[in-house]
Amino acid sequence: MGVNKLPRKPPEPLQGERLVNHFELCRQILVERAQMAGGLSSVTTGNAREWFVHEFLEDHLPGNFRTGAGHILFENETSPQLDLIVARRDSLALPLGSTGLFFAEGVKACIEVKSSLDAKGLKQAGKSFLMLSPEVPKVIFAYQLSNRGQHRNVVAKLHSRQMAPTSDLSVRAGPARK
Hints:
The chain is an alpha/beta fold. It is globular, with a radius of gyration of 19 Å. It is 36% helix and 21% strand. The chain has one domain: Trna Endonuclease, Chain: A, domain 1 (3-Layer(aba) Sandwich). The longest helix has 21 residues, at 16-36. The chain is built from 4 helices and 6 strands.
């Protein structure tokens, strides 16, 4: 009886067009799921959209990371509430109902999720990021922008105060509202 042998060569990793197509389809799914949550109360819509991003990250991050919402504990103070915190799975976090208190040493990234991002929301996110170390990536995930030109000015001001998201602001999810 012959034994089926597995191929010795591992499958090609996701690269090039495959990778681009994968994440483009993921983006489309996030946008469609965001639309499903529309028309409800702003709190329900916001919570649902945060959950969709949380699920995406849980599916795509390596197993040694976890995501959750809550606050980050520094030596003598805590951060404002953050929509999503990416932390090492082996780091300490205290559960507080549906949120948590994450110890700063284990935090690897912070994400603010906005249904519609306007200048006020952008400034608020920048202030939420202020306490975080410069090494921690800071991301604002916006389903829709209210005014792209206005955001460029706000991002420039936040950068000058070192409160801006780590990466450049880019939008592909939906059209800007005027």
